[in-house]
């Protein structure tokens, strides 16, 4: 199936799992916490896309419902932030096709990042992946009152680009992120190779190789059979 997306004036990207291959450290970290709590019926992937505070709240709920031993406690948000930041220091690989797509958009239309990550982590990841200087704005959890799934990161990103959210295409790989972009009013392009993960949005792709930007017509060309 082929198609196209037109009528947009800017683009906003999630970071983890969309631009940089940084979701694996988060999933591994969440898996370690769940294992220590013997939360065998909860998958680490269920905590994908959450902020540290949101993940901790979920872990605290599980800890209470499971009646975990008193010597086992869920981590604090600060402990999660420190552990995740340490893990991210070794992450350098961009997601396949992301640098090429971002480079093709940069300079043609305004583009931004909207992430639930901390500013230092996000900027470090983008710098190591060679994409930091391509963006016109970078919005992180440090810039908003509420992270995803609230629409705040996308609303602020669009504002910083001088656009209405309805004029923006958003790229997301997680349920909470796609919901945030959808609620903000963006046109959401879901990018995830796992069909079991449900994403809000108008378009669903497996990877960025199925997408190309025509700068002459400012059109995103889709090839979902690729």
Automatic annotation (TrEMBL):
Cross-referenced InterPro entries: HAD-like_sf, HAD-like_SPP, HAD-SF_hydro_IA, HAD_2, HAD_sf, PGP-like_dom2
Single GO MF annotation: sugar-phosphatase activity
Organism domain of life: Bacteria
SUPFAM superfamilies registered for this protein in UniProt: HAD-like
Protein name: Haloacid dehalogenase superfamily, subfamily IA, variant 3 with third motif having DD or ED
């Amino acid at each position: 199936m082929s198609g196209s997306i037109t009528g947009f004036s800017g683009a906003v990207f999630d970071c983890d799992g969309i631009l940089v291959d940084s979701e694996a450290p988060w999933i591994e970290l969440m898996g370690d916490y769940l294992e220590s709590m013997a939360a065998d019926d909860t998958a680490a992937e269920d905590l994908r896309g959450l902020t540290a505070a949101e993940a901790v709240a979920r872990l605290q709920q599980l800890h209470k419902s499971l009646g975990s031993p008193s010597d086992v406690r869920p981590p604090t948000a600060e402990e999660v932030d420190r552990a995740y930041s340490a893990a991210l220091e070794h992450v350098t690989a961009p997601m396949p096709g992301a640098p090429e797509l971002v480079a093709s958009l940069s300079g043609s239309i305004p583009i931004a990042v909207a992430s639930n990550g901390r500013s230092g982590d996000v900027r470090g990841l983008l710098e190591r992946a060679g994409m930091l200087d391509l963006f016109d704005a970078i919005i992180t959890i440090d810039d908003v009152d509420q992270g995803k799934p609230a629409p705040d990161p996308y609303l602020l990103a669009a504002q910083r680009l001088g656009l209405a959210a309805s004029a923006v295409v958003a790229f997301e790989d997680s349920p909470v992120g796609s919901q945030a972009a959808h609620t903000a009013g963006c046109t959401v392009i879901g990018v995830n190779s796992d069909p079991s993960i449900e994403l809000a949005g108008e378009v669903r792709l497996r990877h960025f190789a199925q997408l190309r930007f025509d700068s002459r017509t400012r059109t995103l060309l889709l090839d979902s059979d690729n």
